[in-house]
Design goal:
224 residues, alpha/beta, Nucleotidyltransferase, domain 5, 32% helix
Length: 224
């Protein structure tokens, strides 16, 4: 409302919302979904919980979450650019197979960045079996991305990706009492990603849509 030229206080907005029977959604704790690989993995944590970077395509964070539907579980994988909080790759499928879910999200992200310099790009995830699989690891290497993983069972090591999952569940999934199918989840996820990337106000970006900010402005907001 402030960006639209209205001079209105936070308390007045809250009062009007109460009068209209409106309430903001509240994020809750999500069940843990990561299934750690049983094989030993010695890949380093190149992020160390530092998610602020100075340019696009320096750090991508990846994670997977699940959605209940009336026909069973489906899963959504996201890849987010840490610089501007843009979701650059995603996939929704009825299976968690590497090639059908996280790898498809990665291919989506790489396709969108195919004309951009990716030198030194770090891909960070948890130690879920799909992300440390041989196929996913080989794909990262072929694309020239450095693989980074957080410690097993520690959400803070991949906090930015967990934040995206939480917003997705709160703003889209939990707002509907029942989802009929993975196809419907996929369609509505596509709409939510578009809204998130073009219109959603991001706290880390001083409550501005990431698309409306210049790169230097985004970096200033993130660094302060």
């Amino acid at each position: 409302m402030a960006r639209a030229g209205w001079q209105i206080s936070r308390d007045q907005v809250a009062r009007l919302m109460r009068k209209a029977g409106l309430a903001g959604v509240v994020r809750g704790r999500n069940p843990r979904t990561t299934m750690a690989d049983k094989l030993p993995d010695h890949r380093p944590d190149l992020v160390n919980r530092q998610f602020s970077v100075d340019a696009p395509n320096r750090l991508w964070v990846a994670d997977t979450t699940y959605v209940h539907t009336t026909s069973g579980l489906c899963y959504t994988a996201f890849i987010t650019d840490a610089f501007c909080r843009k979701i650059i790759g995603w996939s929704t499928r009825a299976t968690m197979r590497t090639d059908a879910l996280p790898l498809e999200a990665l291919e989506h992200a790489l396709l969108g960045a195919q004309e951009q310099a990716l030198d030194g790009l770090v891909h960070h995830s948890d130690r879920g079996a799909q992300y440390v699989s041989i196929r996913y690891t080989d794909y990262l290497a072929q694309a020239g991305l450095a693989a980074s993983v957080g410690s097993a069972g520690d959400a803070y090591d991949n906090a930015l990706a967990e934040t995206v999952n939480g917003l997705y569940k709160t703003e889209l999934i939990y707002a509907r009492p029942a989802w009929p199918s993975a196809t419907e989840v996929e369609f509505q996820t596509m709409n939510w990603v578009h809204w998130c990337n073009t219109s959603r106000l991001h706290e880390a970006l001083a409550y501005k849509p990431q698309q409306s900010l210049k790169p230097t402005t985004i970096w200033h907001r993130l660094s302060t």
